[in-house]
Amino acid sequence: MVKTNEILKMENIIIGKETETKQEAIERVGRMLVSSGYTTPNYIEGMRKREAEVSTYIGNGIAIPHGVNEYKKEIISTGLVVVQYPDGVDFGKGNTAYIVIGIAGKGDEHLGILKKIALTVQYKKNVEHLRNAKTAQEIVSIIEEGAKE
Amino acid sequence: MLSRKFVISNKYGFHLRPAQVMVEKMTPFNSSVKIKRGDGTEVDAKSLLGLMSLGLKDGETVEAVIMGSDEMSAMKTLKELFSSNFGENQ
Questions:
Q1: Using an 8 Å Cβ cutoff, are A114 and A46 in contact?
Q2: B37 lies in a domain?
């Protein structure tokens, strides 16, 4: 399995962002994917479309915005970016995301880290740890450790 | 109790969208619906995080175990979902 730190790089984790709208948060993670060279700018349009179809809020304070399949061609390589919002972002229907994870998945190599994230955030205490983490390293460690439980 | 094996046939694996479709379609049934991976790990088909935590890839076989008063119609719906690849264009 691909290691977490190969797909999720420290410089692609932002800690302590002030709250903003869902649209702004999606644009932000989209721009991060572009500036890291994972996608073309067009991919952000695909992310907006995806969110308009079905929310990418997955439960327990986590959202994972990504593009619809038709925009896969805009992905240059697989990568993830993470933004932590201690005060949360309103994702609609009473859902608040504290961790917003932008995903560009070219093949299926990102499923491993998604699996780790899903295992980790099944426990509310891990979500609280992610929400309160003070460094990017802490975020990665929580995901790695949480997946082992 | 009904059980049946299915093969994941989604080019990009059983990612978020198919999982969301499964949760949406299975939640209305009263029956319990479990999805079992080859290694025996079992999750609730009505839990998005549970399904995502399996990290199922294209070509993997899973077993669905459904138990309850409406298990027949739940299995029928599940079969339709798998045969339509959860509405994904391949």
A1: no
A2: yes
d(CA B71, CA B62) in angstroms, rounded, equals 18
Picking from B13, B49, B55, the nearest residue to A58 by CB comes out as B49
Q: Indicate which CATH number applies to the domain containing B73.
A: 3.30.1340.10
Could you tell me if B42 lies within 8 Å of chain A, comparing CB atoms? no
Q: Name the residue in chain A with its Cα closest to that of B88.
A: A69
Domain count of the fold of chain B: 1
Provide the domain limits for residue B79: 2-85
In chain A, the residue whose alpha carbon lies closest to the alpha carbon of B19 is A58
Cβ neighbours of A135 (radius 10 Å): 11
φ and ψ at A101, to 5 degrees?
A: -115, 110
Place B75 in a pLDDT band, splitting at 50, 70 and 90.
Answer: very high
Question: Residue B71 falls within a domain, yes or no?
Answer: yes
Q: Which of B10, B14, B16 to mutate to test the interface with A (most CBs of A within 10 A)?
A: B16
**Out of B20, B54, B56, closest to residue A54 by CB:** B20
CA distances from A80 to A9, A61, A114, B69 (A): 8, 17, 10, 42
pLDDT in tens, A52-109: 998 999 999 999 999 998 999 999 999 999 999 999 999 999 999 999 999 999 888 8
Is residue B7 a part of any domain in this protein?
Answer: yes
Structural domain contains residue B79: yes
Structural domains of chain A sorted by starting position, each given as residue range(s) with its CATH number in brackets:
10-107 (3.40.930.10)
Distance from CA of A136 to the nearest CA of B (A): 23
Whether B13 is catalytic is: no
**Interface residue of B8, B9, B15 to substitute, partner A, most A CBs within 10 Å:** B15
